[in-house]
Task: structure prediction
Amino acid sequence: MRRAPKLILITSGAFFLLALLFFVGGTRGMREMRSHEIAEIDMTLVEDGTHYGSSSIHRWAVDVAVMVRNHQIVEIQVLDTSRSNLPDDITSKINRNLIAQEQPLFDAVSGATMTSKGYLIAVADALGSGRRPSSPSR
Result:
């Protein structure tokens, strides 16, 4: 009879530690993701071609290729699907919204999910790398 309370205590403790581990692991990187500002991109400064970008924030890391023609996004591809946890339906929705806009308004594209924000960070990074320097004002 004395074993039952001890077994219950050990099982409860193990369950608590496991739940704590999942909670800590599941929230890792959220503060960094929430505080990350996505830069506004002036598409008139983005040169035509394929531009590569990435987001490397914990489990929302993703690499993308963004194709630009006539200063508009025409296609976006996830490059390494093994590194990304993005479902195809989410990327398709975000891509449709970004392609439909003349000037991508990243904050207005999707809900405030961490997954979509990681993707948008990578797209903005790609477009930022494709900007030509603006001419200095005189």
About this structure: The mean pLDDT is 78. The chain has two domains: 3-32, 36-129.
